[in-house]
Each structure stands twice: as structure tokens, then as C-alpha cells.
């Protein structure tokens, strides 16, 4: 069935209200996207959902829906009235899930590492191949924040090392570390669906006996040789004492999910405990890394 999508610009205060309005004038579903491509993070249990400061609220309507009537309704209720800015898009009738799968291709990171969709052939069978189906979790390698961490992991000698993957999502970084020779990985995520996806991907790659997965409330106390955390700058700041506790003396740390203008602040914060390396940049995202001082 073809669809019509109606987009409205909103912010943290208005997003929820606009969603209600779109539903009230016949939308079958409403989605929120960040106008600046910030990754999606789960709220803490019990926390309110927080919207981005530049949110796009999108209502999906059946193509036969009376859109003139829907727009009149919105103009009647929105403070901008007849001047309300909106965008209407006709969506082709596609199999959206398949389209997403078709766009996820095997990708090489660094010298040795390939991330391959589990439903495709690995292009270099003798390379370090991670076969991945992200399911509902974040992490395919297409986002720069993940790519920066994959390249970093590929650059390390992980043989026999213990790794903590803080915010493991699909398990992509955990599996990359294991396939690159790590002895054991501890994956932590606030989202149970992410832990499920990580476990399934570990089984797919035959490394489930070396991956331990935890919700933050159950996370163990341990010192790891390598810690990688791809979560936003805010949580990286707030969770700094927790994250740094996981890093063994002389252990290595990488932090991702950070925008260029947030890097200095975090570089100084983690510089209290680590000798920080120069940042790595991809698009507007940066990766911080360093070595913990004894
Ligand atoms: C950007 S994704 C990264 C996924 C994957 N590691 C990657 O590099 O693609 C961030 C992940 O961190 C998780 N997360 C967010 N806040 C967290 C927190 N406070 N503690 C643990 N995990 C968290 C999210 O559920 C999400 O799966």
C-alpha cells in the first residue's frame, strides 16, 4: 500500500504534542527523528523520553487519506496557523525491511576486519569476518561512531585481552574484539533488546562462550585491558567514574558518540586518569582514546 508522510519541525517541548495532533488527524503511525542524525538512546527505566532540540515529527497516512482536511486541522490548532510549515511526501510502496537489508553491505574496517550482513557471503573468507544481523539494536558499522571504534579495535593487538564494551547495542564491537583475538568480552547495555541481539550475533559467530552480557544494574566489577564505550557525550560525562573503573592500569580506552565541539571537554575530563591520544574524526563525529595511568 502506498503512503503519505507529513513532516513537522519540533523541539523537546513540542514533539510529544505534535505527535498527538498528527494522530488526531488520522496518522497511522508517528515517528521522531533527530534533524542532526544523533544516534538513538534508550531512556533509563522510569525516565521520561527526551527528544532532541531539533526533532522532526513524521506522521504516516494511508495514501487515500484526506490530507487537505488533516492540514486544515493542524493549521487550526498550531500557533503558526495558516503559516504552518510542513512537508508532504509520497512514499513508494516498498518492502521497507528488505530495502534496509539491501543497503547493508559488507564493509572493511582497518587492515583486517570485515562486518558482513549475516545473509550475504563474506567477500574475503580468510579475513576477520563478523557476520551480523543488528535486529532492533544499534550498530551495523554504517554510522561513523561505530566505524571509529571498529577501526580502533582493528589497530590493537587484542590476543588474550579482556575487553569491556559499554553500550554494546547489536554486539558489533564485542564480536569484532572477540574475532580479533580477545579472550573475553563483557558487553553492557541498558536495553534488553540489545543484549538479546548481541547474544544472537555471538552465536552466529560461534563466540558466545567468550561473551558475557549484563544490564548496568547487574554489571560485574572487573578490570579490563581494553574498554570501548560508544554512547553520547552526556552519558560519557556522567558515567566517567564507572567507565574508568573498568580500565586496568595501563589499559586502553576509546570513547565514541561525541561531536567535534564536545571533544575538548571530555578530553580534559578523562585526561584526569588517562594519557589521551589525539582525537580521530569521521564526518562530524570524533573518537577519543587514551591509556590509563597506573
Ligand atoms: C550508539 S549505540 C552503540 C552500539 C554499538 N556499541 C556500536 O558501536 O554501534 C549506544 C548503545 O548504548 C546503550 N546505552 C545508552 N545509555 C546507556 C547506559 N547508561 N548504560 C549502558 N548502555 C547504554 C544504548 O542502549 C545503545 O545500545
UniProtKB/TrEMBL annotation:
Methylates ribosomal protein L11. It is found in: Cytoplasm. The keyword Nucleotide-binding does not apply. The keyword S-adenosyl-L-methionine applies. GO terms for molecular function: protein-lysine N-methyltransferase activity. This is Ribosomal protein L11 methyltransferase. Its EC number is 2.1.1.-. It comes from Thalassotalea marina.
